[in-house]
Design a protein that fits this description.
3-stranded mixed sheet, alpha/beta, GMP Synthetase, Chain A, domain 3, 181 residues
């Protein structure tokens, strides 16, 4: 039997689709033009079966030592609290995040911001579970400003560990490339 308190809690709480929409407004602290939803790090949103007023948000960080993870978690809590939602965040490390999870819109936002989005695909082999770069038919890194394929990788590490620093040999502009992983 459902108690009156439980019935009231479930009828007044926002739908999961609304929660996803609000999370789509939470920017990544290192790349503010993309949201945590664009990056694909929000893996699940559900209402607790034990506490109907508690929203559970599952997040997979871009990598386990990502320094932005605690900031992202706090921004998610703050966003949902601003809408009157109590949230519990869970970290899920397996399967590991992959750049394949970045949405098409997220990749376009990266490019518009001057960061070349990840090129190629990351495979998740069932035998090891470790991501590997699929190099078959992998496109060449292109300049996000002029589109040239004549690019030099200056450093394997750019402004963050997940990006490489590149320079276009046509327009001579430096840019970050979001590495596949």
């Amino acid at each position: 039997m459902v108690s009156e308190t439980t019935a009231a809690s479930t009828s007044t709480r926002p739908g999961v689709e609304q929660i996803w929409s609000w999370l789509g407004e939470v920017s990544d602290p290192e790349i503010p033009v993309v949201s945590v939803v664009d990056l694909g790090i929000v893996r699940d949103v559900t209402w607790s079966g034990e506490d109907p007023g508690l929203c559970i948000v599952t997040v997979t960080p871009t990598y386990s030592a990502c320094p932005a993870t605690s900031v992202i978690r706090q921004h998610i809590r703050d966003k949902l609290k601003a809408h009157g939602v109590r949230a519990q965040l869970r970290i899920r490390l397996s399967p590991a995040w992959t750049t394949d999870w970045i949405s098409r819109e997220g990749k376009e936002k990266l490019r518009s911001f001057g960061i070349t989005p990840p090129m190629g695909a990351v495979a998740q082999p069932e035998t090891t579970g470790l991501p590997i770069l699929n190099t078959v038919d992998r496109p060449t890194i292109t300049c996000p400003r002029c589109g040239s394929c004549r690019v030099t990788v200056i450093s394997q590490f750019g402004s963050t560990l997940c990006k490489a620093l590149c320079r276009c040999n046509e327009c001579l502009e430096p840019f970050d490339y979001f590495k596949c992983h």
